[in-house]
Amino acid sequence: MAKILIVDDEPRIRDLIREHLQYAGFTCEEAGDGTAALSVLSQGGIDLVILDIMMPFMDGMTCLREMRTRKIMTPVIMLTARSEEYDKLTGLESGADDYVVKPFSPRELVARVKAVLARTMPKPAEATGSYTFGDLSIDTASHSVKVAGQEASLTPKEFDLLVFLVSNKGIALSREKILQKVWNYDYYGEDRTVDTHVKMLRGHLGACRKMIVTVWGIGYKFDPDAV
Protein backbone atom coordinates (compact mmCIF):
# COMPACT_ATOMS: atom_id res chain seq x y z
CA MET A 1 0.00 0.00 0.00
CA ALA A 2 1.12 3.56 -0.66
CA LYS A 3 3.05 5.57 1.93
CA ILE A 4 1.75 9.06 2.71
CA LEU A 5 3.76 11.90 4.28
CA ILE A 6 1.58 14.14 6.47
CA VAL A 7 3.08 17.62 6.94
CA ASP A 8 1.33 19.88 9.46
CA ASP A 9 2.54 21.78 12.52
CA GLU A 10 -0.55 20.78 14.55
CA PRO A 11 -0.16 17.28 16.08
CA ARG A 12 -3.93 16.85 16.45
CA ILE A 13 -4.42 17.44 12.72
CA ARG A 14 -1.66 14.96 11.89
CA ASP A 15 -3.23 12.41 14.25
CA LEU A 16 -6.67 12.86 12.68
CA ILE A 17 -5.35 12.43 9.15
CA ARG A 18 -3.12 9.49 10.10
CA GLU A 19 -5.97 7.61 11.78
CA HIS A 20 -8.22 7.88 8.73
CA LEU A 21 -5.45 7.03 6.27
CA GLN A 22 -4.35 4.01 8.27
CA TYR A 23 -7.96 2.86 8.51
CA ALA A 24 -8.07 3.07 4.70
CA GLY A 25 -4.97 0.86 4.52
CA PHE A 26 -2.21 3.43 3.95
CA THR A 27 1.07 3.69 5.85
CA CYS A 28 2.09 7.13 7.08
CA GLU A 29 5.05 9.27 8.05
CA GLU A 30 4.81 12.71 9.65
CA ALA A 31 6.66 16.02 9.66
CA GLY A 32 5.93 19.23 11.56
CA ASP A 33 7.25 21.73 8.99
CA GLY A 34 8.59 22.03 5.47
CA THR A 35 12.23 21.56 6.43
CA ALA A 36 11.49 18.26 8.16
CA ALA A 37 9.35 17.19 5.20
CA LEU A 38 12.21 17.77 2.74
CA SER A 39 14.46 15.65 4.94
CA VAL A 40 11.97 12.76 4.83
CA LEU A 41 11.43 13.14 1.08
CA SER A 42 15.17 13.07 0.39
CA GLN A 43 15.22 9.49 1.68
CA GLY A 44 12.66 8.38 -0.92
CA GLY A 45 9.79 5.93 -0.54
CA ILE A 46 6.98 8.51 -0.22
CA ASP A 47 4.10 8.14 -2.69
CA LEU A 48 2.11 11.27 -1.81
CA VAL A 49 2.44 14.33 0.44
CA ILE A 50 -0.38 16.03 2.34
CA LEU A 51 1.10 19.49 2.89
CA ASP A 52 -0.27 22.28 5.09
CA ILE A 53 0.39 25.82 3.88
CA MET A 54 0.61 27.72 7.18
CA MET A 55 3.58 26.34 9.15
CA PRO A 56 6.57 27.83 11.01
CA PHE A 57 10.21 27.65 9.83
CA MET A 58 9.28 26.68 6.27
CA ASP A 59 5.69 27.06 5.08
CA GLY A 60 4.00 24.64 2.73
CA MET A 61 4.20 26.81 -0.38
CA THR A 62 7.95 27.28 0.05
CA CYS A 63 8.36 23.56 0.68
CA LEU A 64 6.42 22.72 -2.49
CA ARG A 65 8.52 25.06 -4.62
CA GLU A 66 11.71 23.60 -3.13
CA MET A 67 10.46 20.08 -3.88
CA ARG A 68 9.92 20.92 -7.53
CA THR A 69 13.25 22.78 -7.72
CA ARG A 70 14.95 19.61 -6.45
CA LYS A 71 12.99 17.58 -9.04
CA ILE A 72 11.03 15.79 -6.31
CA MET A 73 7.85 15.15 -8.30
CA THR A 74 5.95 13.29 -5.56
CA PRO A 75 2.23 14.20 -5.82
CA VAL A 76 1.08 16.85 -3.33
CA ILE A 77 -2.31 17.68 -1.84
CA MET A 78 -2.27 21.11 -0.19
CA LEU A 79 -4.11 21.78 3.08
CA THR A 80 -5.07 25.37 3.73
CA ALA A 81 -7.22 27.27 6.19
CA ARG A 82 -7.60 29.97 3.57
CA SER A 83 -10.46 29.91 1.10
CA GLU A 84 -9.22 32.67 -1.19
CA GLU A 85 -8.85 31.65 -4.82
CA TYR A 86 -5.36 33.19 -4.91
CA ASP A 87 -3.97 30.59 -2.50
CA LYS A 88 -5.53 27.71 -4.43
CA LEU A 89 -4.20 28.93 -7.77
CA THR A 90 -0.76 29.69 -6.34
CA GLY A 91 -0.53 26.14 -5.01
CA LEU A 92 -1.60 24.61 -8.31
CA GLU A 93 0.76 26.83 -10.28
CA SER A 94 3.61 25.80 -7.96
CA GLY A 95 3.02 22.14 -8.78
CA ALA A 96 0.36 20.90 -6.33
CA ASP A 97 -1.92 18.15 -7.61
CA ASP A 98 -4.96 19.04 -5.51
CA TYR A 99 -6.01 21.06 -2.47
CA VAL A 100 -8.40 20.70 0.46
CA VAL A 101 -9.62 23.66 2.53
CA LYS A 102 -9.75 23.45 6.34
CA PRO A 103 -11.96 22.53 8.08
CA PHE A 104 -12.14 19.43 5.93
CA SER A 105 -13.93 16.11 5.94
CA PRO A 106 -11.38 13.33 6.63
CA ARG A 107 -13.39 11.04 4.35
CA GLU A 108 -13.15 13.56 1.52
CA LEU A 109 -9.40 13.89 2.08
CA VAL A 110 -8.97 10.11 1.89
CA ALA A 111 -11.03 10.10 -1.32
CA ARG A 112 -8.79 12.82 -2.79
CA VAL A 113 -5.69 10.82 -1.79
CA LYS A 114 -7.04 7.73 -3.55
CA ALA A 115 -7.94 9.75 -6.65
CA VAL A 116 -4.49 11.34 -6.95
CA LEU A 117 -2.74 8.00 -6.37
CA ALA A 118 -4.97 6.26 -8.92
CA ARG A 119 -3.72 8.74 -11.48
CA THR A 120 -0.06 8.92 -10.51
CA MET A 121 0.91 5.45 -9.26
CA PRO A 122 2.47 3.16 -11.89
CA LYS A 123 0.00 0.79 -13.52
CA PRO A 124 1.58 -2.56 -14.55
CA ALA A 125 -0.81 -3.10 -17.44
CA GLU A 126 -0.87 0.51 -18.59
CA ALA A 127 -1.07 0.89 -22.34
CA THR A 128 1.81 2.73 -23.94
CA GLY A 129 2.19 4.54 -27.20
CA SER A 130 3.46 7.67 -28.86
CA TYR A 131 1.99 10.64 -30.67
CA THR A 132 3.56 13.10 -33.07
CA PHE A 133 1.84 16.23 -34.34
CA GLY A 134 4.20 18.57 -36.16
CA ASP A 135 6.78 19.76 -33.61
CA LEU A 136 4.97 18.07 -30.71
CA SER A 137 6.03 14.54 -29.72
CA ILE A 138 4.56 12.57 -26.81
CA ASP A 139 5.83 9.22 -25.52
CA THR A 140 3.52 7.68 -22.94
CA ALA A 141 5.96 4.86 -22.12
CA SER A 142 8.67 7.25 -20.92
CA HIS A 143 6.25 10.04 -19.89
CA SER A 144 8.19 12.47 -22.04
CA VAL A 145 7.11 15.38 -24.21
CA LYS A 146 9.26 17.18 -26.76
CA VAL A 147 8.57 20.43 -28.55
CA ALA A 148 10.71 21.01 -31.64
CA GLY A 149 13.13 18.39 -30.31
CA GLN A 150 13.47 20.00 -26.87
CA GLU A 151 12.28 18.22 -23.73
CA ALA A 152 9.30 19.92 -22.07
CA SER A 153 9.24 19.64 -18.27
CA LEU A 154 5.65 18.73 -17.36
CA THR A 155 4.26 17.74 -13.98
CA PRO A 156 2.53 14.33 -13.86
CA LYS A 157 -0.89 15.99 -13.93
CA GLU A 158 0.02 18.24 -16.86
CA PHE A 159 1.22 15.16 -18.74
CA ASP A 160 -2.00 13.25 -18.03
CA LEU A 161 -4.06 16.26 -19.10
CA LEU A 162 -2.16 16.52 -22.39
CA VAL A 163 -2.49 12.79 -23.12
CA PHE A 164 -6.22 12.89 -22.38
CA LEU A 165 -6.73 15.81 -24.75
CA VAL A 166 -4.58 14.22 -27.45
CA SER A 167 -6.29 10.83 -27.16
CA ASN A 168 -9.59 12.64 -27.78
CA LYS A 169 -8.26 14.68 -30.71
CA GLY A 170 -10.87 16.96 -32.26
CA ILE A 171 -13.46 16.31 -29.53
CA ALA A 172 -14.71 19.24 -27.43
CA LEU A 173 -14.31 18.11 -23.81
CA SER A 174 -16.16 19.79 -20.97
CA ARG A 175 -14.39 20.77 -17.78
CA GLU A 176 -16.60 18.26 -15.97
CA LYS A 177 -15.39 15.43 -18.21
CA ILE A 178 -11.75 16.48 -17.84
CA LEU A 179 -12.06 16.55 -14.03
CA GLN A 180 -13.66 13.11 -14.01
CA LYS A 181 -11.05 11.50 -16.25
CA VAL A 182 -7.84 13.30 -15.28
CA TRP A 183 -8.51 14.12 -11.62
CA ASN A 184 -10.76 11.12 -10.95
CA TYR A 185 -13.42 13.07 -9.10
CA ASP A 186 -16.71 14.68 -9.93
CA TYR A 187 -17.32 18.32 -10.80
CA TYR A 188 -18.07 20.52 -7.79
CA GLY A 189 -17.73 23.92 -9.41
CA GLU A 190 -13.91 23.85 -9.38
CA ASP A 191 -13.60 24.65 -13.08
CA ARG A 192 -10.62 26.92 -12.38
CA THR A 193 -8.60 23.80 -11.54
CA VAL A 194 -8.83 22.73 -15.18
CA ASP A 195 -8.32 26.26 -16.51
CA THR A 196 -5.20 26.77 -14.39
CA HIS A 197 -3.62 23.50 -15.53
CA VAL A 198 -4.43 24.20 -19.17
CA LYS A 199 -2.73 27.58 -18.80
CA MET A 200 0.37 25.96 -17.27
CA LEU A 201 0.40 23.21 -19.91
CA ARG A 202 0.22 25.72 -22.74
CA GLY A 203 3.15 27.54 -21.19
CA HIS A 204 5.33 24.46 -21.73
CA LEU A 205 4.38 23.89 -25.35
CA GLY A 206 5.76 26.94 -27.15
CA ALA A 207 4.16 27.42 -30.57
CA CYS A 208 2.33 24.11 -30.09
CA ARG A 209 0.26 25.74 -27.35
CA LYS A 210 -2.24 26.70 -30.05
CA MET A 211 -3.08 23.01 -30.48
CA ILE A 212 -5.03 23.22 -27.20
CA VAL A 213 -8.10 25.14 -28.28
CA THR A 214 -10.60 26.80 -25.96
CA VAL A 215 -14.16 25.86 -26.88
CA TRP A 216 -16.20 28.69 -25.42
CA GLY A 217 -19.06 27.58 -23.22
CA ILE A 218 -17.81 23.98 -23.16
CA GLY A 219 -14.14 23.47 -22.31
CA TYR A 220 -11.17 22.46 -24.47
CA LYS A 221 -10.15 20.29 -27.40
CA PHE A 222 -6.89 19.21 -29.02
CA ASP A 223 -6.58 20.34 -32.64
CA PRO A 224 -3.13 19.84 -34.24
CA ASP A 225 -4.23 21.88 -37.25
CA ALA A 226 -4.80 24.99 -35.13
CA VAL A 227 -1.11 25.96 -35.23
Automatic annotation (TrEMBL):
Residues 128-224 bind DNA. Keywords: DNA-binding, Phosphoprotein, Transcription, Transcription regulation, Two-component regulatory system. The modification 4-aspartylphosphate is found at D52. Residues 3-117 form the Response regulatory domain. Residues 128-224 form the OmpR/PhoB-type domain. GO terms for biological process: regulation of DNA-templated transcription. GO terms for molecular function: phosphorelay response regulator activity; transcription cis-regulatory region binding. One of its GO terms (cellular component) is cytosol. CDD domains: trans_reg_C (cd00383). InterPro entries: CheY-like_superfamily, OmpR/PhoB-type_DNA-bd, Sig_transdc_resp-reg_C-effctor, Sig_transdc_resp-reg_receiver, WalR-like, WH-like_DNA-bd_sf. May play the central regulatory role in sporulation. It may be an element of the effector pathway responsible for the activation of sporulation genes in response to nutritional stress. Spo0A may act in concert with spo0H (a sigma factor) to control the expression of some genes that are critical to the sporulation process. This is Stage 0 sporulation protein A homolog.
